Predict the 3D structure of the following.
Amino acid sequence: MAASKTANFSADPNLRHAWLASLGLISVARREAGNAVANAAATADRLQRHAVGYAVDALDIARGGAITLREQVEPKIAGFGAEVEARLAPVLEKLGIAAPPSRKPAARKATRRATPRKSAKRASTRTRG
């Protein structure tokens, strides 16, 4: 017959149990703190990417609105200028003042760009020795 083992096991906790439990608690807390820092960094990065994306979207919307507004306003301003000139022309003729010639936008002249100069390296005149 096999001899049965008797367990040297105490049901009530002692100082060794408290020590081992505290070591386990410290290791779990350390691991979770590292995970919390990594999660916080990932969340901050994600929020930064979202903020940049929203800023770019807002900028695109503002540019689109400005372009649309300019497309609506420019023809009205040109029409208003033509209307003012048409109404002033008879008055200027009665006063004997010649109407200014209609202005045409000046064409841009083609200009050559200056080529960047290469910087000459200075030769060393000092000798070592």
Q: What stands out?
A: The longest helix spans residues 15-95.
